[in-house]
Known about the structure:
This protein has helices at about 15-25, 35-45, 60-70, 85-95, 110-135, 150-165, 180-185, 205-215, 230-235, 250-260, 290-295, 300-305, 320-335, 345-355, 360-375, 400-405, 410-435, 440-445, 450-460; strands at about 5-10, 30-35, 50-55, 80-85, 100-105, 170, 195-200, 215, 230, 240-245, 265, 275, 280-285, 310, 345, 380. The protein is of the alpha/beta class.
Amino acid sequence: MTKGRLLIVDDEPDMLENCTRILGKAGYECLTVSDPLKAVSLLESERPDLLLTDLRMPGVDGLGLLRQAHQVDPHMPVIILTAFASIESAVEAVKEGAFDYVPKPFSVDQLKLAVDRALAQRRLAVENVRLREQLRGTYGFENIIGRSPAMAQVFELVRKAARSEANILIVGESGTGKELVANAIHVNSPRAAEAFVPVDCASLPEQLLESELFGHEKGAFTGAVRTKPGLIEVAHRGTLFLDEIGELPVGLQVKMLRALQERQIRRVGGTRQIDVDVRLVSATNRDLRDLVVKGQFREELYYRVNVIPIVLPPLRERKGDVKLLAHTFLKKYAQGREVPLEGFEPEAIQILENYSWPGNVRELQNVIERACVLAEGETISARDLPAHLSAPPATAGGAPVPALTSKNLPLKEAKAQWMTQLEATYLAELLRRHDGNVSQAAKAAGIDRKTFHRLINKYGIRQTGVSR
Length: 468
Ligand SMILES: Nc1ncnc2c1ncn2[C@@H]1O[C@H](COP(=O)(O)OP(=O)(O)OP(=O)(O)O)[C@@H](O)[C@H]1O
Ligand SMILES: [Mg+2]
């Protein structure tokens, strides 16, 4: 491992050579470029730890480069190299956010010292952000509501796991808060000041996902008009969150495994190995072990990602949390109403507590949001809750026609009810046929995954094939 990656920009090749010799010997990895215009794209594709740049150059000058660097990474230290005659402009650059300037000609120590100091300062800044987060006492847990014993156990585990560098697998039904927990892990980890990069493995076809994750070189395939670093690179020193990891295509599982083992990646169409240091947090609502048995998930990868498993209990197993969550969501969604909402009528709470919440916290959140819109008085009553919460769940196939068994509804309303039931039955059956795999079921239905999720939550359809 090097002490850091530096990008050095100067239109004089001698100067580049000189700097590389000094800083290379001091243990830094040096990328050099004499064309400042090329430097701009290198800033993006290489994400160096520090930029060392000449001030006066044809094309873009040092100041312009400084601004570009800070767009890519606001904390990137920039050191300006400058001829003695233009010290004033160097001072100007420092005012604009450069860390320091080094007048030419410089001594070996002068240059080394400036770079060492800048990188030490960056480390301090990173550490400070982390300490501030801790002092705030938030631990990133303030968003995760729950006092049930089941959740207390989860909190305890998350706190411990976050401090380690171990890869974590979060398992739970849809809507149990997997993404929320992944976030909390990052915020509580030593990597808090670096990037948290979520990737939804189910959202893209294999080829696109590959270039999203691993990046690509310019011209690697049609449409690759410029070099793009992958999200794994973007997560360097931070946390990579692989959501729905069970959906990762087998080819990419192999590539991912290699990246984790070698701590290096190669961009699509590239030849160079790039060092990456990422902490991996993954999430799934499927039974990965079952996928391993079926040969759909690589066993070695399973062991790599599942060093610490965190199992999120379904909401129906979190005694007492429904009420707590309902009140939290009420506060959130009642804001800005003309008539303030004070709480729930006892009957409404009863209904909420008796319901099985197949869509878990997300479903509860949606129900409360809707109720806050519908409620006319100062409290939420049973009337403001969807009817299916108090009714026994609809049976698939052969269910009586609701419009005829209850009141005599006008045709239009009866049709609407019927269509609703038909839709729910259709979605439930499709999901069952695809073994609880939402992505596949959504594909078969010809709608996107998000919409499918929204619909099954709306109808309270439970996913099967969920591991617990
Ligand atoms: N314990 C909790 N406290 C407060 N809000 C929560 C809690 N758990 C989940 N939520 C909220 O519920 C919604 C769903 O949570 P999240 O996206 O983390 O679930 P998920 O397990 O990733 O679901 P999916 O498998 O569908 O992706 C989010 O809006 C989240 O903020
Ligand atoms: Mg999620």
